[in-house]
Amino acid sequence: MAKLTPKQERFVEEYLIDLNATQAAIRAGYSSHTANEQGARLLTNVSIRACVDKAKAERSKRTGINQDLILQEIARIARVNIMDIVNPETAEIKSCASVDDTAAIASIKVKKVPTEYGDSIEREVKVVDKIKALELAGKHLGMFTDKLDVNHKGAVQVVYDIPRNKTD
């Protein structure tokens, strides 16, 4: 594997910030006019791709976050029933709720509101967006595609339909 130039090394560092090749190329010192092409070209360089892949793997190991963990969290949020883990009357987490299930709770707010009959307590439980979790899981499974896959395996027969002259 070839050694990277300092500019290429900088591109790798910048790319790992947001995984945006165009912006990484600009931040690494490439021309903003050609950054889109440069970014795409740099990512096809075998040495650069190897450095990016290695750094991503190291980061995943260091943080303990990987694709399986992300998908498990998405699935957990998609499956949780908030009524199974939060008492709707008190907004308290039920004792039977697991720590994993409570990850679906975005926030719980409890506040006293003075009324003419004494204090009233308002409770609000916000959950993580279940629809978004289902959408992400569905996309991962290939259920929702924004493009049509027209790949075909096998033979293709081309038929020319040429109009005949009426004089024939």
UniProtKB/TrEMBL annotation:
Gene3D superfamilies attached to this UniProt entry: Terminase, small subunit, N-terminal DNA-binding domain, HTH motif
InterPro entries in the cross-refs: SPP1-like_terminase, Terminase_Gp1_N_sf, Terminase_ssu
Keywords, comma-separated and alphabetical: Viral genome packaging, Viral release from host cell
One Gene Ontology term from the biological process aspect of the record: chromosome organization
A matching Pfam family: Terminase_2
The organism's place on the tree of life at top rank: Bacteria
Name by which UniProt lists this protein: Phage terminase small subunit
Biological classification of the source: Bacteria, Bacillati, Bacillota, Negativicutes, Selenomonadales
